[in-house]
Amino acid sequence: MTAGRSLTPEAVGTIACRARVRRNWSQTELATCAGVTREWVGRLENGAPRLELDKVLRTMAVLGLRVEAPADESANAEDIELANEIAWTMALEDRKLSTGGYDRLLDKIVADRVTRKQSVATV
Prior knowledge:
This protein is mainly α. It has 2 domains: 9-62, 434 Repressor (Amino-terminal Domain), CATH 1.10.260; 71-122, no CATH class. The chain has helices at 9-22, 27-34, 38-45, 53-62, 77-92, 99-122. Helix 2 crosses helix 3. The longest helix is centred in the C-terminal third of the chain and has 24 residues, at 99-122.
């Protein structure tokens, strides 16, 4: 699944169905591999709007599909460098970041960059 394509429930269902058919799998075979029911696979393929995200992602992974953030919403080298500098400074102050804390910090840096980019684009 690529950035730029509208990821409506219907689009996700169509992508999943096509990937399943390309593999010559039945809905039952996919369900068994993904740890869901055949009925759930049918709901996914029909574009049901309220499915459990963990099951959707697991099913997509079984089908060899990935969900990716648009390129401008992924951490780049500058974002990582800034996060590392902040983490290093915090460690010097004896306030070490956990892995989860570092990930949240990096997410905030990326979100701030994307927001600033959007603000500049609308001015």
